[in-house]
């Protein structure tokens, strides 16, 4: 039987992908006590980056918000893998960090991060509301427009 999170994903028309394998020498998630740390997730859709390039140099905010949402979808995919398929074990999204590949004169990183924040709140309700940081970087792996990592609180 599907839990409330799975039902909400279905209602939103979102199917979680298989959790992506790491692209370098790290693990995709690590649990310590009741905290689950999700490594930075790129906006992969069907194994390919949905958005590449820099904000303020070709990529627009609405595109980057979609990329951020895709990162959040991949965060939940990693959480599902870490939690044995049971997303109902998530009790809170504690914090996300949103890295935005951006030109030096781009200043709307917080709006980009809303793509992930809004999605997590839509799917998880009150438990999806979180602390966050959003900042610009000169480049991200594979020329991704956005990368997001997360800290989740989970039940044992």
Keyphrases for this structure?
60s Ribosomal Protein L30, Chain: A; alpha+beta; 28% strand; 7 strands; 156 residues; five-stranded mixed sheet; 29% helix; two-stranded antiparallel ribbon; 3 helices
What's a concise summary of this model?
This protein is an alpha+beta fold and 156 residues long.
What layout of secondary structure does this protein have?
Blueprint: H1 4-11, E1 29-32, E2 35-41, E3 44-45, E4 48-49, H2 61-82, E5 90-101, H3 109-124, E6 131-137, E7 146-154
Parallel strand pairs: 5-6
Antiparallel strand pairs: 1-2, 2-7, 3-4, 5-7
Helix pairs in contact: 2-3
Number of helices: 3
Cα distance spanning the termini: 20 Å
Level-2 CATH architecture: 2-Layer Sandwich
- The secondary structure category is alpha+beta
Low-confidence stretches: none
Strand order of the largest sheet: 1-2-7-5-6
CATH topology: 60s Ribosomal Protein L30, Chain: A
Tell me the overall shape. Answer: globular
Q: Determine the oligomeric state from the structure.
A: single chain
- On the 0 to 100 scale, the average pLDDT is 96
Strand content: 25-35%
Compute the gyration radius: what is it?
15 Å
Largest sheet: 5 strands, mixed
**For the record, what is the CATH homologous superfamily label?**
RutC-like
How many domain units? 1
């Amino acid at each position: 039987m599907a839990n409330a999170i799975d039902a909400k994903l279905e209602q939103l028309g979102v199917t979680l992908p298989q959790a992506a394998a790491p692209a370098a020498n790290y693990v995709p998630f690590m649990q310590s006590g009741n905290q689950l740390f999700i490594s930075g997730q790129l906006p992969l859709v069907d194994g390919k980056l949905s958005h590449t390039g820099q904000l303020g140099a070709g990529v627009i905010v609405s595109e980057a918000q979609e990329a951020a949402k895709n990162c959040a979808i991949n965060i939940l995919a990693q959480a599902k893998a870490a939690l044995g398929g049971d997303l109902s074990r998530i009790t809170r999204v504690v914090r996300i960090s949103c890295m935005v590949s951006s030109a030096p004169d781009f200043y709307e990183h917080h709006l980009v991060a809303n793509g992930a924040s809004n999605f997590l709140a839509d799917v998880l309700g009150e438990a999806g509301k979180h602390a966050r940081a959003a900042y610009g970087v000169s480049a991200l792996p594979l020329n991704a427009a956005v990368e997001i990592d997360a800290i989740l609180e989970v039940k044992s």
